[in-house]
């Protein structure tokens, strides 16, 4: 139900230029009223939208949202906000409590796109419905503000403060009817939750800005070729700069996506909810006419394929092992830990970016769905790159998490060997990396696969990584381990499962000269670009 209530409204369609899903570090909401700046300089954004008995509202900036549920019993003209002209004690900001949002049953507020960490959350209330008199009217003292069994505080500001941990850039505050209130005093249906203001302040030093990026192309110097970082299957990528000085990578999506503006923003919201140390951070997106841009963090060391195959950095064995482990952790998060499960579909070395500390971060996850409206596990449109495709996906379009597991195997072998998955310059039996790795494994010569530039390495660890990689290449997806299992094996916390046998697709597939030439050309092209590389979709490039 929560996910349905958070579906973005068609109000998005009325916006010509807008950035969405920027990561924030705080928010304040003036529930049921206009924008107010409090005496301590906290900005409380207005929340005076008209809500019905089953409705929701999302701000234009997607900083927060609110949803309401259920009718008030006995009321023919239900109101979901209240006002009061009273002055309230115990506060310097009496006007903060003169409006409030109410509900008959369930009232939820959501903080969206928050930077992860500990937050101090403050909920502010004041009784505005039940009067404080000596008459019978005051018998409704068990009233609509009910905090952990506390009594009423008529005309007095009440603050409930607590610490909450934001783990997935998402905070939910749920206020619900606790069974207290009255049926008819002072009016029909005086019961349910009431809230005047909400704020969330980080208990840490923020690393992001609350200022959304501007919409001018000047940030990338009008997409100058000099700023182009690479050309991927979803479009070119440029280096740019935000107003606060942060470097960014802007992906200019190709115009083949069939989704409307609101659908597109909803998918980007889903992608942005996936936050992990080994995933590239999505700062936001921009829509202007047919132009669709994604704004990512900029990573200094660019892509893994450039590092490995261009020999731009000398990666020792420890660094390579850590990269394998980091990629495995990122995929395990996407498959098994993220609130929204994501199959990448196109795991490859050019989609693994490295920060200044050589921490690997997976890019382009979730983007394939923007270009594919198929909802089942069988897709007529294959999105991936030759050399990394699992056989069941390449031949039948059968897509599961095990498709990514297979591609991870190829990336691991590339990291160990320092060579791409296909190299026409090598002898015939060594051209295909996966086939060569199996040959060495069958002859107990796995360590020969190690990159020749490695002056020293842990032979046992090299054998372990290769063994795990080959386990991930089994013909049957069921025989490939889950990525969480791969993480445990790479960490050395459990023994590597026994590799069953050489996959049938390697022993049975034979390529004649014409087919080999085609594969050679495609695989060579697939390794030439950074920040994304040549992909196939339905047999054609995108």
TrEMBL record:
GO terms for molecular function: ATP binding; protein serine/threonine kinase activity. Residues 520-536 have a biased composition (Polar residues). Keywords: ATP-binding, Glycoprotein, Kinase, Membrane, Nucleotide-binding, Phosphoprotein, Receptor, Repeat, Serine/threonine-protein kinase, Signal, Transferase, Transmembrane, Transmembrane helix. It is an enzyme of class 2 (transferase). It catalyses: L-seryl-[protein] + ATP = O-phospho-L-seryl-[protein] + ADP + H(+); L-threonyl-[protein] + ATP = O-phospho-L-threonyl-[protein] + ADP + H(+). Residues 520-542 are annotated as: Disordered. It is a single-pass type I membrane protein. Residues 223-496 form the Protein kinase domain. Its EC number is 2.7.11.1. Coiled coil: none annotated. It is found in: Membrane. The keyword Transmembrane helix applies. SUPFAM superfamilies: Protein kinase-like (PK-like). Its main location: membrane. It holds the Pfam family PK_Tyr_Ser-Thr. InterPro entries: Kinase-like_dom_sf, LRR_Rcpt-Like_S/T_Kinase, Malectin_dom, Prot_kinase_dom, Ser-Thr/Tyr_kinase_cat_dom. This is non-specific serine/threonine protein kinase. One of its GO terms (cellular component) is plasma membrane.
């Amino acid at each position: 139900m929560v996910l349905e209530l958070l579906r973005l409204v068609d109000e998005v369609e009325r916006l010509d230029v807008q950035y969405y899903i920027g990561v924030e570090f705080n928010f304040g909401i003036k529930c049921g009223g206009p924008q107010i700046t409090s005496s301590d300089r906290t900005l409380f954004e207005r929340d005076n939208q008209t809500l019905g008995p089953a409705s929701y509202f999302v701000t234009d900036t997607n900083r927060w949202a609110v949803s309401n549920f259920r009718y008030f019993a006995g009321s023919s003209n239900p109101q979901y906000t209240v006002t009061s002209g009273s002055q309230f004690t115990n506060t310097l900001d009496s006007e903060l409590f003169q409006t409030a949002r109410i509900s008959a049953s369930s009232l939820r507020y959501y903080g969206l796109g928050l930077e992860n960490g500990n937050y101090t959350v403050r909920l502010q209330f004041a009784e505005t419905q039940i009067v404080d008199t000596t008459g019978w009217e005051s018998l409704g003292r068990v009233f609509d503000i009910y905090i952990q069994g506390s009594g009423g505080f008529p005309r007095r500001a009440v603050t409930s403060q607590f610490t909450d941990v934001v783990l997935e850039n998402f905070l939910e505050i749920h206020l619900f009817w606790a069974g207290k209130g009255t049926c008819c005093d002072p009016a029909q249906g005086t019961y349910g939750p009431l809230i005047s203001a909400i704020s969330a302040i980080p208990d840490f030093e923020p690393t992001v800005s609350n200022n959304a990026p501007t919409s001018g192309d000047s940030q990338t110097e009008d997409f100058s070729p000099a700023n182009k970082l690479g050309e991927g299957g979803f479009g070119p990528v440029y280096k740019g700069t935000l107003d606060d000085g942060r470097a960014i990578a802007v992906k200019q999506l190709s115009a083949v996506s069939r989704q409307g503006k609101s659908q597109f923003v909803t998918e980007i919201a889903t992608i942005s909810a996936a936050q992990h140390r080994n995933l590239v951070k999505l700062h936001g997106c921009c829509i202007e006419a047919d132009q669709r841009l994604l704004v990512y963090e900029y990573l200094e060391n660019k892509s893994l394929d450039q590092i490995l195959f261009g020999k731009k950095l000398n990666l020792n064995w420890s660094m390579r092992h850590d990269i394998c482990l980091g990629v495995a952790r990122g995929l395990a998060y996407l498959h098994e830990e993220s609130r929204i499960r994501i199959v990448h579909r196109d795991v490859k070395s050019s989609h693994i970016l490295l920060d200044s500390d050589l921490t690997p971060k997976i890019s382009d996850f979730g983007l394939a769905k923007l270009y594919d409206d198929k909802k089942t596990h069988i897709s007529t449109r294959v999105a991936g790159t030759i050399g990394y495709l699992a056989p069941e996906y390449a031949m039948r379009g059968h897509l599961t998490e095990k498709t990514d597991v297979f591609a991870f195997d190829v990336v691991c072998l590339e990291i160990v060997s320092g060579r791409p998955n296909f190299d026409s310059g090598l002898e015939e039996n060594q051209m295909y990396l996966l086939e060569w790795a199996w040959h060495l494994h069958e002859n107990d010569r796995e360590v020969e696969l190690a990159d020749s530039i490695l002056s020293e390495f842990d032979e046992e660890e090299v054998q372990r990584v290769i063994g795990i990689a080959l386990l991930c290449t089994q013909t049957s997806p069921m025989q490939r381990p889950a990525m969480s299992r791969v993480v445990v094996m790479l960490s050395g916390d459990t023994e590597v499962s026994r590799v069953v046998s050489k996959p049938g697709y390697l022993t049975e597939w034979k390529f004649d000269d014409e087919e080999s030439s085609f594969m050679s050309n495609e695989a060579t092209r697939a390794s030439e670009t950074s920040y994304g590389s040549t992909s196939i979709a339905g047999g054609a490039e995108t």
